Amino acid sequence: MAAAFKWLSRLFGALAATLAAGLLVLWVLLSGALPERDRDFRVEGLSAPVRILYDAHAVPHVFGETEADVFFGLGFAHATDRLWQMEMNRRAAQGRLSELLGEVTLPFDRFMR
């Protein structure tokens, strides 16, 4: 009985260590994928400063002095949050998904072209 308990405790310890390591790796991978929102960026093309604030639901609120500046800020927010999706939609519309995803998307690329 003692040998079985010792074996089960070692197994449980190994499973707990594996789970903790997996959660740590997942946390590191996901935390690096989030956009930086607490940074100041300096970009050309603006006539005045633009402020982008995110609410509790991650909805961007863009404030600026001119309409053109606000639209630029909105585009910046979209690119910060969804650049990968925008790039994939552009490639899909051009019929160029197979350059990234391989032969699986070749029929779709032919249809789009």
What's a quick, concise take on this entry?
The protein has helices at residues 2-33, 67-94, 98-101, 106-112; strands spanning 51-54, 60-63. It is mainly alpha-helical and 113 residues long.
Describe the fold and architecture.
With 113 residues, the protein is mainly alpha-helical. It has helices at 2-33, 67-94, 98-101, 106-112, and strands at 51-54, 60-63. The protein has 4 helices and 2 strands, in the order H-E-E-H-H-H. Helices cover 63% and strands 7% of the residues. A hairpin with a 5-residue loop joins strand 1 and strand 2. The chain is flat and about 75 Å long. The longest helix is centred in the N-terminal third of the chain and has 32 residues, at 2-33. A two-stranded antiparallel sheet has the order 1-2. It starts with a helix and ends with a helix. The mean pLDDT is 88.
Unreliable segments (pLDDT under 50, ≥5 consecutive)?
Answer: none
Assembly level: single chain
Mean pLDDT: 88
Shape: flat
Order of helices and strands, N to C? Answer: HEEHHH
Biggest sheet: strand arrangement: 1-2
Number of β-strand runs: 2
Estimate what percentage of residues fall within beta strands: 5-15%
How far apart are the termini?
A: 70 Å
What structural category characterises the helix and strand content?
Answer: mainly alpha
- If you compute it from the alpha carbons, what radius of gyration comes out, rounded to the nearest whole angstrom? 24 Å
Determine the fraction of residues in helical runs and give it as a percent range: 55-70%
Largest sheet: 2 strands, antiparallel
Annotation field: number of helices: 4
